[in-house]
Specification:
Elements: E1 2-7, E2 12-19, E3 23-30, H1 40-59, E4 69-75, H2 79-96, E5 100-104, H3 105-116, E6 123-127, E7 132-138, E8 141-147, H4 153-163, H5 170-178, E9 191-192, E10 195-196, H6 199-208, H7 214-240, E11 244-248, H8 255-268, E12 271-273, H9 277-280, H10 284-296
Parallel strand pairs: 1-4, 4-5, 6-11, 11-12
Antiparallel strand pairs: 1-2, 2-3, 6-7, 7-8, 9-10
Helix pairs in contact: 1-2, 3-10, 4-5, 4-6, 5-7, 6-7, 7-8
This protein binds adenosine monophosphate and magnesium ion.
The site of adenosine monophosphate has 19 residues, from helix 4 and helix 5.
């Protein structure tokens, strides 16, 4: 089977062709804000300007008649961006006369990792710009065991970084600055059951800008926010009796978060999988591969229900490909 995938939930517009064995090609057109954070309308305009070009790049290497389906990121993400991507995917599927497959972006992050590793049945910590969730597969669904009660940890890092005068994306800059400190300032540590909240840390960190060094604030921010995530992951492993943990999403690049999860899983005798660098960032291959899994299990998205779904939750998807 050969499936074309189109990703475009927030900042990276990416197209890829994938078959059952491997990723055949990928073309990317990342949106880089001139100033400030991601502006939905500007990002969507960038996608509209580049979607024909990324599609042309991946299709030029293929025999169009051999394509079995067109998959696209249906959500979660920024509405204006998702609308560009779903419109392009609909047009292509009609033109090629092949099925359309609307893919949940979060599930795609998980499935591409399961494909490329020997992971069996992990607890997943999905930490991206807008989302922070702890997930676990059970009876045909990825269940959300815990999640942020307000903003995603990535947006929280980016928001504080902007108020400290650091350019978007803030996560990597905060990671670098945090290496220059070992002084942990008190910050709101908010875990409620299996859920967590980050907005209080942003306020505390912004307030501390007048009295502490940027290095100390970045260090304290990371230590507090990541400890909350590690606590919930440990409880998820304990309560489900699972023995694998997968980290996914852009914040998963953070070496300190990886280190904290490595320590926790080692103490429990569990296996830890940090994201492979090539799938860390949003990519078309993960959408194409998940579309291939869905299509090979009879799942298609009729045009009438192929609209953008900005709040698409992973537990809405019936997972028929795991037995
Ligand atoms: P995504 O939404 O999955 O594309 O991830 C983007 C988010 O990842 C942004 O909020 C970035 O600031 C964040 N990010 C990227 N690299 C790092 C890092 N090394 N440490 C923390 N956050 C990061
Ligand atoms: Mg992502």
């Amino acid at each position: 089977m050969l499936v074309l995938g189109l990703e475009g939930t927030a900042w990276n517009l990416s197209a890829s062709l994938v078959n059952d064995e491997d990723i055949l090609c990928e073309a990317n057109a990342p949106y880089v804000p001139v100033s400030g954070g991601i502006h939905p309308r500007e990002a969507a305009q960038h996608f509209a300007d580049n979607v024909a070009s990324v599609l042309r790049q991946v299709l030029s290497s293929a025999d169009l008649r051999s394509i079995d389906g067109v998959a696209f990121s249906q959500g979660p993400g920024l509405g204006p961006c998702l609308r560009i991507v779903s419109t392009a995917a609909r047009a292509l599927s009609l033109r090629l006369r092949v099925p359309l497959i609307g893919v949940n972006h979060c599930i795609a992050h998980i499935e591409v990792e399961r494909w490329k590793t020997d992971l069996a049945d992990p607890i997943v910590l999905y930490v991206s710009g807008a989302n922070s969730q702890v997930l676990s597969y059970r009876q045909n669904r990825y269940r959300i065991l815990g999640e942020t009660l307000d903003i995603g940890v990535g947006n929280c890092l980016d928001k504080f970084a902007r108020s400290a005068g650091l350019a978007h994306p803030g996560g990597p800059k905060i990671e670098r600055l945090a290496k220059g400190s070992r002084r942990c300032l008190p910050m709101p540590y908010v875990v409620k059951g299996m859920d967590f909240s980050f907005s209080g840390i942003v306020t505390a960190a912004q307030n501390a800008l007048t009295s502490a060094t940027l290095e100390d604030i970045c260090y304290s921010f990371q230590e507090t926010a990541f400890a909350m995530l590690v606590e919930v992951c440990e409880r998820a492993l304990s309560q489900t009796d699972k023995s694998e943990l997968l980290l996914a999403g852009g914040v998963g690049a953070n070496k300190r978060l990886q280190e904290m999860l490595t320590i926790m899983t080692a103490e429990r005798g569990a296996r830890f999988f940090s994201p492979r660098p090539e799938y860390l960032q949003d990519n078309g291959a993960m959408i194409a591969y998940t579309g291939l899994l869905m299509l090979s299990h009879g799942i298609q998205t009729p045009i009438a229900s192929s609209g953008a779904n900005p709040n698409f939750r992973p537990d809405e998807v019936e997972v028929l490909w795991i037995t």
